[in-house]
Amino acid sequence: MILNSHALVIESIDYHMDKQRLIFNSRDELLRIDVERIVYFEADGNYTYIVTCNKLKSAICMNLGQMEEVLAQRLKEKKSLFARIGKKYIVNLGFIYKINPLKKQLVLSDFSNFTYQLEVSREALKKLKDIMLQIKF
């Protein structure tokens, strides 16, 4: 599924159950995603893939920098759920299982339903490791 950015409208909605969702609306289709179920965003040129914890992957016609701005504007206090990792990814910090800079490997998992292994630069992983060590859970 690829949503065209020409008619793209993005907004966040608060629901009764304190869930926040992103709505991606194009001329042809609408995509609604619970923010906490987004595992990562992946850049692919002018497109960004959104990968969720139920293993769905959707393409949005927006580059990763634009997606980063949207998250900062729309999510307000929940924007700290996500961190930009190098040129290719924005990841949900809550799903980080393992950071291995030597192997250039980032593993994201919910410990029961999915595990994603991403190849990321050593420098980006070192920065991510520092961020994770500063977070107080």
Descriptive tags:
137 residues, alpha+beta, OB fold (Dihydrolipoamide Acetyltransferase, E2P), 6-stranded mixed sheet, 3-stranded antiparallel sheet, 2 helices, 12 strands, globular
Model description:
The protein is α+β, with helices and mostly antiparallel strands. The chain has one domain: Beta Barrel (OB fold (Dihydrolipoamide Acetyltransferase, E2P)), CATH 2.40.50. The protein is built from 2 helices and 12 strands. The chain has a 6-stranded mixed β-sheet with strand order 1-7-6-5-9-8, sandwiched between helices. The protein has a 3-stranded antiparallel β-sheet with strand order 2-3-4, with helices on one face. A hairpin with a 3-residue loop joins strand 8 and strand 9. 22% of the residues are buried. The N terminus is likely disordered.
Tell me the strand percentage band: 35-45%
Helical content (DSSP H or I, runs of 4+): 10-25%
**Shape annotation:** globular
Examine the secondary-structure arrangement and name the CATH architecture.
Beta Barrel
**Derived structural class:** alpha+beta
Name the strands of the widest sheet in spatial order: 1-7-6-5-9-8
CATH third-level topology: OB fold (Dihydrolipoamide Acetyltransferase, E2P)
Roughly how many Å apart are the termini?
35 Å
Extended strand count: 12
CATH class: Mainly Beta
What's the Cα radius of gyration?
15 Å
Most strands sheet: 6 strands, mixed
Order of helices and strands: EEEEEEEHEEEEEH
Number of helices: 2
